[in-house]
Design brief:
Largest sheet: 5 strands, mixed
Number of helices: 11
Strand order of the largest sheet: 1-5-3-4-2
Strand content: 5-15%
Oligomer: single chain
Length: about 240
């Protein structure tokens, strides 16, 4: 039997630090964890690197610290942010908020601007990434880049303009943030023959026609019907 990375114990809470870029503490989870530990404290060690930065087990560390209990830990040399993300993917998947906050903590300008955009306009990650990258037909590659820290904003001003125009639909349709609806609107906004003012005017009389749809194409069909309502100059908005 070979012994590797023995479990150590300490009451020196100042020995440890939080790895910059690791996800934020979940207060609700922390409180549940503290209650569980008070009922039965199990020795489940945290993982730290050689600098005693916590790689895995931030919530356990804070729970033990708050309860003034010993910290059990294993030192894994060479571990960093990449290992944090991989470890957590096997326990509780990082969501896009976690990745956003991770790179914002690292002061990445692209992600800091992204967070401002998302907080300002309130759209979901899929919609924000689409607007900011200009990639509207599929976000697989964009999401991969977002999660690996290589996300790049193509045109921030244009994305803001698109978001503001989509928000103009809010008084007429409460589903204006739905993914498929936003995809349809991004398609329209790229059409040089489309006029958002005309759509708004038509929605004032045709609001009831705008209902929830399951996909982008259904939304486009409805939006085109509304847009061309009682108009002599019919415009093709679906195919460009």
């Amino acid at each position: 039997m070979k012994i590797i990375n023995q479990v150590r114990q300490t009451n020196d809470y100042n020995l440890f630090s939080i790895l910059k870029g690791n996800r934020l503490i979940n207060k609700a989870h922390l409180n549940r964890l503290k209650k569980s530990i008070e009922e039965e404290s199990l020795c489940v060690p945290i993982i730290v690197n050689e600098n005693y930065e916590i790689i895995d087990g931030q919530n356990r560390y804070y729970a033990w610290k708050d309860l003034k209990l010993p910290v059990y830990f294993i030192v894994a040399k060479g571990y960093g942010l990449t290992q944090v993300q991989r470890l957590n993917s096997n326990i509780k998947n990082w969501d896009n908020d976690d990745f956003m906050e991770c790179y914002c903590q690292l002061e990445d300008e692209q992600y800091l601007k992204y967070r401002v955009f998302k907080q300002t306009y309130g759209f979901g990650h899929y919609e924000c990434i689409a607007m900011l990258t200009g990639y509207y037909k599929g976000n697989g590659l964009s999401f991969t880049r977002f999660r690996t820290g290589t996300f790049k904003i193509k045109n921030y001003k244009k994305a803001c303009d698109m978001a503001e125009k989509i928000i103009l639909i809010q008084p007429y349709y409460d589903g204006y943030k739905r993914r498929s609806f936003v995809s349809a609107m991004l398609h329209l906004l790229e059409n040089k023959n489309f006029d958002i003012t005309r759509l708004i005017q038509k929605l004032k009389y045709q609001q009831s026609k705008l209902v929830h749809c399951t996909n982008k194409q259904q939304y486009l069909s409805i939006l085109q019907d509304i847009y061309n309502y009682k108009s002599t100059d019919k415009v093709n908005l679906i195919y460009t």
